[in-house]
Design a protein that fits this description.
about 575 residues; alpha+beta; Nucleotidyltransferase, domain 5; GIY-YIG endonuclease; 4 domains; 5-stranded mixed beta sheet; 20 helices
Length: about 575
C-alpha cells in the first residue's frame, strides 16, 4: 500500500533504521545487521533487529569496526527469512535514517538479492534535517550530532543502537520540522536540495549564474582589444557584473581571444560573458598566485577544480592526558601539544596515524583510556604497549611517543624531505629484525615500509613546502629580461610578493623576516598552504634564482643579489 503523502506530519508513523554491512562497495556490499525503531508522536516505541548471513567472509577490519564477528553472521538467518518482516514494518510508514541514501541503497540491494520487492517508502534523512533545522551543529556525524542536541550515546556502530540514536535525533528535530511543514510531502520538500533563485524568483539550475540560462547561440564576443600582451589574470563577468571565470596566462590578450574564437568549444560561462577585466603581473608565478587568491575570494562557477579543493588536516598529539594518543584533526592543536602537518587528505593521514601507532606500540583507542583485564587485539599482536592493563611504565610509553614525533621534527637546514627519517627508522628496524633472524617481523616491516613510502609521497608536498627555510625567489618576466617579481617565503607562507627592485629589496626583506625571527612556527593556516605549495612547485620546475634568508644576509648581500637580476628603472625625464 502506498503511503498518503498528504497525511498530516503530526499523525504519521516513522521507522528509524540503520544497517551494518561487510564494508565492500557496489554489488559486493552485503547487509550484516539491520536495526529498526518505531517512532510516533515524537516518542520511541517498538524495536526490531536481526543479523543477516553473508556470502563472502568478513574482513578483520570490519569485524573490529562493527564488533560483528564471522561466527555471528554464520549463525544468522538468511536475508530471505528476515527481510519480509522488515517490509511489514515499513508499510504505511516513513523511513528515517542517518545518511539515508546509503541505508536505502543497501536495503534495496538486499531486497533484490533476496528476490523480494522493495517497498520504496518515502525517506527522511537526519543529516539533511540537521543541515536545515540545526545549522549550528559543527559536525553532522551521528554521535557528534546527537551530543549537540543533548542526547547521550553509549553504543555506536551496531545497527539497533545507531537506529535508536537516529530516532532520538529525529525526535529532537521533529518539533522544528513540524513548524516548517504540515504534511509528509511538505517535510520531504523541506529537506530537498536547495534551489538558488534569480532576481525574478525563478529556480536556478546547478552551475547557472544570476544572468539566467545561457542562450543557445554564442553571445557577441566581449571587447578584448584593450587587453595587454602581458602576464596576468583575467576576470570574465556576465551582464549583471557577476564573476563567471578567473584565468591566468603569460599573455592575457592571446589567451582571452582563444576562449572566444569561433573554433573554441562553448561552455556555460563563455556563452554568458559580457566583459573581461585584467590584472597584470610581472611574471608567470605572479599570475599563478594572483589567480589562486581571486578564485578563493570570488569562487566563480567556471573554476570548479580549484573551487572544490580537498581540505588539509593535521596529525597532532595533545599532552593533557595520561598516555597521549595521536589524532587527526582539521586544525593544529593549541597549548601543550605537537602538530604535524599540514597533510592533504584525511584518509591518508588516518592511515599514517595507524601505521605510527603500530610501529611504536602507541594506543589505538581514543583519548579516554579504557581499563581491561586482557590486552586488546592490537596488544595481542604486539602492536600496542597496552597501558589499558594498568601496569605499564608511563616513561616507557612517553619515550616511544617522543621517538615517533621526533621523526617529523622540521629542520629547515636539512636537505631531507619531511618523513624521510621515518623511512630510515623502518630500514633500521628491518636490519635489526633480520640480524636477529626474526624474518616474519622483517617481512611485515618491509610491507609497512613500502606503504609508508606511498603515503609520505602523497602527504609530503605540503610538509616540504611549509618546512622550507626562508628564501627570496626571483621570477622573471617571460619575455623582458630585467623585469622580475620577488617572492619572500617565510615561516611556510608567502610573506610578501610583487615587482622587485634593488631600491626597496632590503626593507621588504626585513619586513618579511620580522615575524619569523620573533616566533618561528610550523603551523600554517590551511588557507595559506596552497599558496606556498604553488610557489615551491614552480620553483622546483623552473629553478629560478633563490637567496636563502636564514643565514643572515646583510643589506649589501640582498641588494647585490637583486641587482644581478633586475634592470634599474630609467631616470625620470627632466621637466622643460
Amino acid at each position: 500500500m502506498v503511503i498518503d503523502l498528504a497525511q498530516p506530519l503530526a499523525h504519521a508513523e516513522f521507522l528509524a533504521v540503520d544497517t551494518e554491512t561487510n564494508g565492500r562497495a557496489g554489488d559486493a556490499c552485503e547487509v550484516t545487521e539491520v536495526g529498526a525503531v518505531l517512532v510516533g508522536g515524537g516518542e520511541l516505541h517498538d524495536r526490531w533487529e536481526t543479523l543477516c548471513a553473508v556470502r563472502a567472509p568478513l574482513s578483520r577490519g570490519i569485524q573490529r569496526f562493527t564488533r560483528i564477528t564471522q561466527a555471528m553472521v554464520d549463525a544468522a538467518p538468511p536475508a530471505e527469512a528476515t527481510l519480509p518482516e522488515l517490509a511489514e514494518l515499513m508499510a504505511d510508514r516513513v523511513l528515517v535514517a542517518h545518511n539515508a541514501s546509503f541505508d536505502r541503497r543497501v536495503l534495496a540491494q538486499a531486497f533484490a538479492a533476496a528476490g523480494l520487492d522493495w517497498p520504496d517508502p518515502p525517506v527522511l534523512c537526519t543529516v539533511a534535517l540537521a543541515r536545515r533545522l540545526h545549522p549550528l551543529a559543527r559536525q553532522r556525524k551521528l554521535v557528534p550530532l546527537a551530543e549537540s542536541l543533548g542526547i547521550e550515546v553509549e553504543t555506536a556502530h551496531r545497527a539497533l543502537a545507531d537506529a535508536e540514536t537516529c530516532a532520538r535525533v529525529f525526535c529532537a528535530l521533529f518539533g522544528r520540522l513540524c513548524a516548517s511543514a504540515t504534511t509528509i510531502e511538505e517535510a520531504l520538500a523541506v529537506i530537498g536540495p536547495a534551489r538558488r533563485r534569480d532576481r525574478a524568483g525563478r529556480a536556478r539550475r546547478s552551475g547557472e549564474t544570476l544572468g539566467g540560462l545561457a542562450p543557445r547561440g554564442r553571445r557577441r564576443r566581449p571587447d578584448v582589444a584593450g587587453l595587454p600582451d602581458e602576464p596576468g589574470v583575467y576576470i570574465v563577468r556576465n551582464p549583471e557584473g557577476q564573476t563567471l571565470y578567473v584565468g591566468k596566462s603569460v599573455s592575457v590578450r592571446t589567451r582571452v581571444r582563444a576562449h572566444f574564437a569561433p573554433s573554441s568549444p562553448s561552455s556555460s560561462w563563455t556563452l554568458q560573458a559580457e566583459t573581461v577585466e585584467c590584472r597584470t603581473t610581472t611574471s608567470e608565478l605572479g599570475a599563478l598566485l594572483l589567480e589562486r587568491r581571486l578564485i578563493r575570494r570570488l569562487r566563480p562557477p567556471g573554476n570548479a577544480v580549484l573551487k572544490h579543493a580537498d581540505p588539509y588536516v593535521y596529525l597532532r598529539c595533545r599532552f593533557d592526558i595520561p598516555f597521549p594518543v595521536l589524532e587527526v584533526a582539521p586544525e593544529p592543536a593549541a597549548g601543550h601539544a605537537v602538530s604535524i602537518g599540514p597533510l592533504r587528505g584525511r584518509a591518508a593521514a588516518v592511515e599514517l596515524k595507524e601505521q605510527l601507532d603500530s610501529l611504536f606500540g602507541l594506543r589505538h583507542c581514543g583519548r579516554g583510556l579504557p581499563r581491561r583485564q586482557w590486552p586488546s587485539a592490537y596488544g595481542q599482536m604486539g602492536r600496542c604497549l597496552s597501558p589499558c592493563l594498568g601496569d605499564l611504565d608511563p616513561n616507557l610509553y612517553r619515550r616511544r611517543l617522543d621517538e615517533a614525533l621526533a621523526l617529523f621534527a622540521g629542520d629547515p637546514s636539512s636537505a631531507r624531505r619531511p618523513g624521510q627519517a621515518l623511512l630510515e627508522h623502518v630500514d633500521a628496524e628491518i636490519a635489526r629484525a633480520t640480524s636477529e633472524q626474526r624474518y616474519e617481523r622483517a617481512a611485515w616491516l618491509v610491507r609497512r615500509r613500502a606503504r609508508l613510502a606511498e603515503l609520505l609521497e602523497r602527504l609530503g608536498d605540503a610538509l616540504s613546502a611549509t618546512h622550507a627555510h626562508p628564501t627570496l625567489v626571483v621570477a622573471a618576466h617571460p619575455r623582458e629580461p630585467g623585469r622580475c617579481d620577488g617572492f619572500w617565503l617565510v615561516d611556510g607562507r608567502v610573506a610578501e610578493w610583487g615587482p622587485l627592485s634593488a631600491a626597496d629589496a632590503w626593507e621588504r626583506t626585513e619586513r618579511a623576516l620580522r615575524h619569523w625571527r620573533a616566533a618561528p612556527t610550523t603551523s600554517v593556516p590551511p588557507d595559506e598552504i596552497d599558496e606556498v605549495r604553488l610557489v615551491t612547485t614552480w620553483v622546483d620546475h623552473h629553478r629560478p634564482p633563490v637567496l636563502r634568508l636564514d643565514r643572515g644576509p646583510g643589506r649589501g648581500a640582498v641588494e647585490r643579489f637583486v641587482s644581478r637580476h633586475v634592470t634599474p628603472a630609467p631616470p625620470a625625464a627632466a621637466a622643460h
